[in-house]
From TrEMBL:
One of its GO terms (biological process) is respiratory electron transport chain. It comes from Nannocystis pusilla. Keywords: Iron, Iron-sulfur, Metal-binding, Oxidoreductase. Pfam families: Molybdopterin (PF00384), Molydop_binding (PF01568). GO terms for cellular component: membrane. The keyword ATP-binding does not apply. This is Molybdopterin-dependent oxidoreductase. Residues 8-364 form the Molybdopterin oxidoreductase domain. GO terms for molecular function: iron-sulfur cluster binding; metal ion binding; molybdopterin cofactor binding; NADH dehydrogenase activity. Residues 449-552 form the Molybdopterin dinucleotide-binding domain.
Length: 574
């Protein structure tokens, strides 16, 4: 619809705020952005790195496999400045300073090379750029890295030796890696570690950026990305564009489009005048809310297609009531690359319609070619035919349990668990070394705390769905921030006190909770509370490669709000 009907490549989705930097690094180094193996494959690993992931809250199903693996003897290495619950199961938990992963992993790479713990044959036969990597990490002895990361040298050595001596080692990572202005560099370091030690392409090894939304892998595969058509085929390649022009019966824009945050910036400049938002709530989920408010208000025309009246929909000229996953048929591709058919269990409520049906009707009314679909199966068939990865998959072959892509024989096989056994889509894997650089905005006397934002088990992102669920709201109904008891004491704060948290962009008020999870000088705020929206505080500075904002690091000030006392109310009465 965007490419054919609106004639632009300005189409993007939530990966931009999520794993865009991981995908940028994976595409650059091995030529594929998806996981190299499933999370269940940890059953075959003897070491697993878990970097910047709070899996017990955010990937509870995967987390049960991680815990089972730990019980069986798999050594979990948990790297996170904010102690996640999985640290309880870890062989080693490393509390590095936020935003210092490049220094940390360069130290690990340095030590693995120094001790000769790398896979010389794998490096020689399947990679390129080793000498450059070696020259870069030479400057990051564990001692130097430990200073940058606020750690003991021994912690870095221990991770290097444990990973370097593993038979089968696997690397999982989450938003703590990707959501930084150096997110792509963070991911490059993890990929280098895996390539250096040949820990990919065999059972129990590999790269697994844990994907978030139920169908975010599917949305990426389907080409909701400004630079590529479905299956990561570049819009700038004339031969590829020609194939899509033939399939869709129209000329297509040869220029890559804008990304999520760039689109908001363009709206503010009045370069983008209209917006169609489907199943996203950017007023609450994009960084720097005040800027987003101005951008949405500056639009000439805004359409929101959602299952609830969202904060973003308040700005809309037209709100189209869509259907939830309970009410429709369609495929979802999960973090494992598993494509599954969802089937309806409820009737559509009120005037709600199916998402694809709404799009097709708009396409037909605009007189755009190619929207004559009457069955969802045919939409999927068109998509699968234009890709390599989904070839052979259809509603018939997917069956009840779905298939992993790629799947050579969808009738008889479940699909390929372990990818890259012999080579990478790029041929050789490329080492792309990275130098440590500090976050965009460092703490200062005026803004002395580091704010990290993230999630809760009980709520889904902006809370449009979960905050309407009374069972979940009963457990977590009130905005709060986590702080270390020692930091609270220094500010004279008690559990439950109201605080104001202020950054260079804005201020919110919420309650404070004592927790040993945050590091010293850090504060954690979930971004689900519209009444105390964390993104009022966050910065819209972007990683130059992945174009992802730095959700995991902002400088803030924390102040106790003066609570009204009995004496105040007496004073007021007098
Ligand atoms: N209940 C629930 N589950 C969800 C979601 C939800 O909203 N609610 N959202 C889904 C989505 S879309 C996603 S993307 C996933 C996200 O799942 P996760 O990746 O687990 O997301 P976060 O909680 O944002 O952050 C993960 C971890 O990064 C750590 N971190 C922060 N800064 C740094 C750093 O500098 N270095 C390192 N190494 N770590 C750091 C944080 O302390 C935190 O433990 O969850 C999915 N699952
Ligand atoms: N500060 C901070 N901000 C963040 C993050 C962070 O860690 N910190 N994480 C970022 C990440 S990783 C992500 S993925 C984004 C998520 O950001 P969003 O995707 O904007 O967040 P959601 O609340 O999941 O919004 C999804 C919307 O889709 C609607 N919806 C659900 N099902 C359907 C459907 O079937 N059809 C239609 N049409 N609509 C539907 C829901 O009601 C909801 O309004 O947030 C990002 N923002
Ligand atoms: Mo996400």
């Amino acid at each position: 619809m965007v490419r054919v009907g609106f004639g632009t490549n300005n189409v993007d989705h939530c990966t931009r705020l999520c794993h865009a930097s991981s995908v940028a690094a994976l595409m650059e180094t091995i030529g594929s952005g998806a996981v190299s193996t499933t999370f269940r494959d940890i059953e075959n690993s003897d070491v697993a790195l878990l970097v910047g992931t709070n899996a017990t809250s955010n990937h509870p199903v995967a987390a049960t496999f991680f815990k089972q693996a730990a019980k069986r003897g798999c050594k979990l290495l948990v790297i996170d400045p904010h102690r996640p619950q999985l640290a309880d199961f870890a062989h080693r938990y490393v509390r590095l300073r936020p935003g210092t992963d490049v220094a940390f992993f360069n130290g690990v790479l340095h030590e693995i090379i120094r001790r000769g713990l790398y896979d010389r044959q794998f490096v020689a036969e399947r990679t390129e750029g080793f000498e450059r990597l070696k020259a870069t990490v030479e400057h990051y002895s564990p001692k130097v890295a430990a200073q940058l990361c606020g750690l003991d040298e021994q912690e870095i050595v221990d991770v290097a030796v444990t990973w370097g001596s593993a038979r089968a080692a696997i690397c999982f990572w989450g938003m703590g890696v990707s959501q930084h202005v150096h997110g792509t560099d963070n991911a490059r370091c993890l990929i280098s570690l895996v390539l250096l030690t040949g820990q990919v392409g065999r059972p129990g090894t590999g790269l697994h950026p844990l994907r978030g939304q139920n169908n975010v892998q599917g949305a990426s595969d389907a080409g909701l990305i400004p630079m590529v058509f479905p299956d990561y085929q570049s819009v700038t390649d004339p031969a590829i564009r020609g194939r899509f022009e033939a399939a869709w019966g129209t000329q297509l824009d040869p220029q890559p489009g804008l990304t999520v945050v760039e689109i908001m910036h363009a709206a503010l400049q009045k370069d983008v005048r209209g917006m169609y938002v489907q199943g996203e709530n950017p007023f609450v989920s994009d960084p720097n809310t005040e800027k987003v408010r101005k951008a949405l208000a500056a639009l000439d025309f805004l359409v929101v297609q959602d299952i609830f009246m969202t904060e973003t929909a308040e700005f809309a000229d037209v709100v189209l009531p869509a259907s939830s996953f309970f009410e429709k048929t369609g495929t979802y591709t999960n973090t494992d690359r598993r494509v599954q058919i969802g089937r309806p269990v409820l009737k559509l409520p009120g005037a709600a319609r199916l998402d694809w049906d709404i799009m097709c009707e708009i396409g037909r009314r605009m007189g755009v070619p190619g929207f004559e679909f009457t069955r969802i199966e045919d939409v999927f068939a068109e998509f699968a035919a234009l890709t390599e990865s989904y070839r052979g998959l259809s509603y018939e072959t997917l069956g009840l349990e779905g298939k992993l892509w790629p799947c050579k024989d969808p009738v008889h096989e479940d699909g390929q668990v372990v990818l890259f056994e012999r080579d990478f889509p790029s041929g050789r894997g490329k080492f792309v070394p990275a130098e440590f650089a500090p976050p965009n905005e460092l703490p200062s006397p005026e803004f002395p705390f580091v704010l990290t934002t993230g999630r809760l088990l009980e709520h889904w992102h902006t809370g449009t769905m979960t905050r309407r669920a009374s069972a979940l709201e009963t457990i977590e109904s009130e905005p709060y921030a986590d702080m270390r008891p020692a930091d609270m004491a220094a500010l004279g704060l008690l559990e439950g006190d109201e605080i104001a948290v202020t950054s260079r962009r804005g201020s919110i008020t919420l309650k404070v909770r004592a927790s040993e999870a945050p590091g010293a000088g850090s504060i954690f705020i979930p971004f689900c509370w519209r009444e105390a929206a964390a993104n009022v505080l966050t910065s819209d500075a972007l990683d130059p490669f992945g174009k992802i904002p730095e959700f995991k690091f902002s400088a803030v000030r924390v102040e106790k709000l003066h609570a009204p006392t009995l004496a105040d109310s007496r004073g007021a009465a007098e």
